[in-house]
Specification:
Elements (H helix, E strand, L loop, with lengths): L1 H56 L7 H26 L1 H29 L1 H24 L1
Helix pairs in contact: 3-4
């Protein structure tokens, strides 16, 4: 009889082992269903928020003709500014000229700054100029010797 009891336990364990893949599959399906439900709820909430934003952004329809004319004039002005900005962006020649002018202004400010420093402290500038002159003379003398 003890062999029958052990045989029954083995059969029960086999049944549990056979159910494990099925149970795992069932758990996986349940998880996927829960995730799908959460996703649907999030989508619904996002749609509701988008509708609320859309409704709050809608301006009230004006009924007064003068108010309509004012809004039309504002829209025309804004459109004109937009067109001017786009035209400026596509004008390569004007952009290049603007950059050249900026570079000229930078160079001029650096020249002015250097001139100011030389006027304030002429000794270092004279030393540098003297050094450059000596270097040029040295180069000329060496070239003539060759």
């Amino acid at each position: 009889m003890s062999s029958d009891a052990s045989k029954e336990k083995t059969d029960t364990q086999d049944a549990d082992t056979k159910d494990t893949p099925t149970k795992a599959k069932g758990r996986k399906e349940k998880e996927l269903n829960e995730q799908a439900a959460e996703h649907k709820a999030e989508e619904k909430q996002a749609e509701q928020e988008a509708e609320a934003i859309e409704q709050s952004n809608k301006p009230e329809e004006p009924t007064d003709p003068d108010q309509l004319r004012g809004e039309i004039a504002d829209a025309r002005e804004e459109l004109g500014n937009t067109v001017e900005a786009l035209a400026a962006k596509t004008d390569v020649k004007a952009q290049a000229k603007e950059k050249v002018d900026e570079q000229k202004a930078r160079a001029q400010s650096k020249i002015d700054e250097a001139t100011k420093q030389v006027k304030e402290k002429p000794a270092p500038a004279a030393g540098v100029a003297g050094g450059v002159v000596v270097l040029l003379i040295l180069i000329l003398v060496l070239r003539r010797r060759r």
